[in-house]
From TrEMBL:
<keyword id="KW-0378">Hydrolase</keyword>
<keyword id="KW-0067">ATP-binding</keyword>
<dbReference type="InterPro" id="IPR006555">
    <property type="entry name" value="ATP-dep_Helicase_C"/>
</dbReference>
<dbReference type="InterPro" id="IPR045028">
    <property type="entry name" value="DinG/Rad3-like"/>
</dbReference>
<feature type="binding site">
    <location>
        <position position="194"/>
    </location>
    <ligand>
        <name>[4Fe-4S] cluster</name>
    </ligand>
</feature>
<dbReference type="Pfam" id="PF06733">
    <property type="entry name" value="DEAD_2"/>
</dbReference>
<dbReference type="Pfam" id="PF00270">
    <property type="entry name" value="DEAD"/>
</dbReference>
<comment type="function">
    <text>DNA-dependent ATPase and 5'-3' DNA helicase. Unwinds D-loops, R-loops, forked DNA and G-quadruplex DNA.</text>
</comment>
<keyword id="KW-0411">Iron-sulfur</keyword>
<keyword id="KW-0347">Helicase</keyword>
<dbReference type="InterPro" id="IPR014013">
    <property type="entry name" value="Helic_SF1/SF2_ATP-bd_DinG/Rad3"/>
</dbReference>
<dbReference type="InterPro" id="IPR011545">
    <property type="entry name" value="DEAD/DEAH_box_helicase_dom"/>
</dbReference>
<protein>
    <recommendedName>
        <fullName>ATP-dependent DNA helicase DinG</fullName>
        <ecNumber>5.6.2.3</ecNumber>
    </recommendedName>
</protein>
<keyword id="KW-0408">Iron</keyword>
<dbReference type="InterPro" id="IPR006554">
    <property type="entry name" value="Helicase-like_DEXD_c2"/>
</dbReference>
<keyword id="KW-0413">Isomerase</keyword>
<dbReference type="InterPro" id="IPR027417">
    <property type="entry name" value="P-loop_NTPase"/>
</dbReference>
Length: 692
């Protein structure tokens, strides 16, 4: 089928010519997905291979024949839009039978008509505790809610937050959207016209859906099957897969947020005043349960206060509160953890009780709505609050599973740390706990369950090896036949020159002198008539270099973090180049990957410094310690593979098409003078290298 698809696309688009690497990638994916088990394909496909068409061609036959939903997950909105608006329509047209495809977003991206109607139609309450500004904000919020409801009710808006051209206050949106626990489902009076359920209905007919990594990982974290079908019914394609380990780590970690828990207990306490009347039809069931909840809620408050007292008497915690240190770790067996342990165990017991009871209350409300034992107005008002209590205490249970899990010598320990954060306009202490890597989470939630998996990106290998990506993603049980690194279709020697000026100073030894030298180099090497991308690893350094440049260059520079957003910087840059003028982007990490400026939109990439990662976060520090404990070297195991990937990505901003050409300049002489620099250089594409 692969050959037929490429032939058909060639007929539809006469300019299209399948590249050998593209066909190889398609066949590799098809072969891996045809296996009876362990259907896993990991492909590094450099820019220019045409990986989107390759994975679509390689996976579609298996998806259609096995009646599995093909889910394409990406890290960026741009790629999702490109898939929906361009790639999938072209691909579908090339198939013997067109396929049905759509984009899926999380439930919270869609308005809940029931909650919106409640807010829009509730009479304004005169709350004497509110000041003039708060009353004004309240009126504004209700006015916007009324406008939103009118637009939705009169079919001028589809209920998708992203389709609004005006800004919606985040606090208001939280009030008028919901999650699964707060939803009345078929019992809701708006069920037939609900934006989310219209989407779900459409998804039942779809054969390919496009999502983002966060949605897919959130669904997996909750056990799967909430937004998407169960993983067993899916073939997953992770495009931009190099982002996956870090994204997954964020979903695997949990936190205990004191302000949030106090607010949730208040919500639960308020509900306890309303529920006996609302659930009168179940009164023979809830007497003992309500008695337990009324004991659990004060116990939760007491235990939270105990935890705060323990934390408040700790010297390290006070150093953090005074701003002298950030994110101190809590070590297993330390006096602080030992003091927290028993109150946390008790908190877990009460959290389990509250979670169990509120799950049942939510079930009763939904049944009451179905059997018309409860009015829609009452049931739909109660469900979101009951769902919030259930969700927050379920999350607390997950946190405790990580926090109270004893460290074992034979496996990487969980990492525990403290932070002071802003939540609901208040400063609060937050206790965090998470695994050292997302490997176990990904393997458990997805790899062991999904029907098939494809992972691809332009850069997956560090120092020429899949080793780090493999470990970070939990792919150790898959041998080399599951991995493929494709050669690039670009002729690097002819298309790009890599210049390495012999800088006098080093950024890690003589920072002020090196910054001045970078500024001097930029004056010499930037062509003010052309399109230049200058990449920095530090905002402070970027500003210092910018200050030392002449006005003639400053007038051409679009500075990240100045006035325009990165997206609008790119728009402005393109406008200048298309108008025949020069333009210079000064950017950081955001511009070192995922930015697509083909042809004359970028003819010179300047990398000021090797992009070594700075491991300052608690999980990163814990990984370094674990590697040392096992006899390894963090620099070789973590830093070098990471900088290798980042450097290849940064250089990759130059050549986006086979007809592109230009120059890369790296202003860091460690590439020439350090042994590791020579290794990094050897794993870059085969550019024409010029040392000066």
């Amino acid at each position: 089928m692969i050959d037929e698809i490429f032939t058909s696309i060639n007929k539809l688009m006469p300019d299209f010519k399948a590249r050998p690497q593209q066909v190889e990638m398609s066949r590799f994916i098809h072969q891996r997905l045809q296996q009876s088990q362990n259907r896993m394909a990991v492909v590094e496909a450099p820019t220019g291979v045409g990986k989107t068409l390759a994975y679509l061609s390689g996976a579609i036959e298996t998806a259609l024949n096995s009646k599995k939903l093909l889910v394409i997950s990406t890290a960026t909105v741009n790629l999702q839009q490109q898939l929906i608006q361009k790639d999938l329509p072209q691909f579908s047209a090339a198939l013997p039978q067109p396929i049905r495809f759509m984009q899926i977003k999380g439930r919270r991206r869609y308005v809940c008509p029931s909650k919106l109607a409640q807010l829009a139609t509730t009479p304004e309450q005169q709350d004497l505790t509110l000041d003039v500004d708060q009353k004004y904000q309240q009126v504004l919020r209700q006015t916007q809610a009324k406008n939103l409801f009118q637009d939705w009710d009169e079919h001028r808006w589809d209920g998708d937050r992203d389709s609004r051209t005006d800004a919606i206050d985040p606090a208001l949106w939280h009030e008028v959207s919901t999650d699964s626990e707060g939803c009345a489902g078929k019992s809701c009076r708006y069920f037939i016209s609900c934006p989310y359920y219209l989407l779900r209905k459409e998804m039942q007919l779809a054969q390919v859906v496009v999502v983002n990594h966060d949605l897919l990982l959130s669904d997996a974290d909750l056990g799967g099957g909430l937004v998407l079908p169960n993983p067993e019914e899916l073939i997953l394609v992770f495009d931009e897969a190099h982002n996956l380990p870090q994204k997954a780590l964020g979903h695997a970690a949990k936190a205990l947020n004191f302000v949030q828990l106090y607010q949730t207990v208040e919500t639960a306490d308020s509900l306890m005043k309303k529920l006996p009347t609302a659930l009168a039809f179940r009164q023979h069931d809830f007497g003992y349960m309500f008695k337990e909840i009324r004991q659990d809620l004060p116990a939760i408050i007491n235990l939270l206060q105990q935890l705060l007292d323990i934390l408040g008497s700790d010297a390290t915690v006070n150093e953090m509160l005074e701003g002298r240190i950030s994110e101190p770790r809590i070590f297993w067996g330390s006096p602080l953890l030992n003091a927290l342990f028993i109150p946390c165990q008790k908190l877990l017991q009460h959290a389990n009780s509250i979670y169990k009871h509120f799950s049942l209350i939510g079930k009763w409300i939904k049944e009451g709505l179905e059997k018309t034992q409860l009015s829609n107005k009452v049931g739909e008002a109660l469900l979101p609050q009951v769902g919030t209590v259930q969700n927050i205490f379920g999350y607390l249970i997950d946190f405790m599973a990580l926090f109270l899990d004893e460290d074992k010598a034979e496996r990487p320990p969980n990492v525990r740390w403290l932070a002071q954060e802003q939540f609901a306009k208040q400063q609060t202490l937050v206790i965090h706990a998470g695994p050292m890597t997302a490997a176990g989470f990904l393997d458990r939630s997805l790899w062991q369950r999904a029907y098939g998996v494809v992972m691809t990106s332009a850069t997956l290998r560090g120092m020429g090896l899949f080793q780090r990506f493999r470990a970070d993603c939990g792919l150790q049980r898959y041998d080399e036949k599951h991995f493929l690194a494709l050669p690039s279709p670009f002729k690097y020697q002819q298309q790009a020159v890599l210049k390495l000026p012999m800088m006098q100073y080093l950024p890690n030894e003589n920072l002020p002198q090196w910054q001045q030298e970078v500024a001097n180099q930029l004056k010499l090497i930037i062509d003010i008539q052309a399109a230049t991308l200058v990449l920095f690893t530090s905002r402070q350094v970027m500003l210092q270099v910018y200050k030392q440049l002449p006005l003639s260059l400053k007038n051409l520079i679009l500075l990240q973090g100045d006035q325009l957003s990165p997206k609008n910087m790119i728009v402005k840059h393109i406008q200048r180049i298309e108008a025949g003028r020069g333009s210079i982007i000064f950017g950081m990490d955001r511009f070192a990957e995922g930015v697509d400026l083909p042809g004359n939109l970028c003819t010179h990439v300047i990398i000021t410094k090797l992009p070594f990662p700075v491991f300052t976060r608690p999980i990163e520090q814990a990984r370094q310690e674990w590697i040392i404990k096992r006899g390894g070297q963090p620099f070789i195991s973590l830093s070098l593979p990471a900088v290798s990937v980042k450097l290849i990505q940064a250089c990759g901003r130059l050549l986006r098409k086979e007809t592109d050409s230009g120059q890369i300049t790296i202003l860091d002489r460690r590439l020439l003078t350090k042994n590791y620099g020579k290794q990094l250089l050897s794993h870059l594409p085969d550019y024409q290298v010029i040392t000066e």
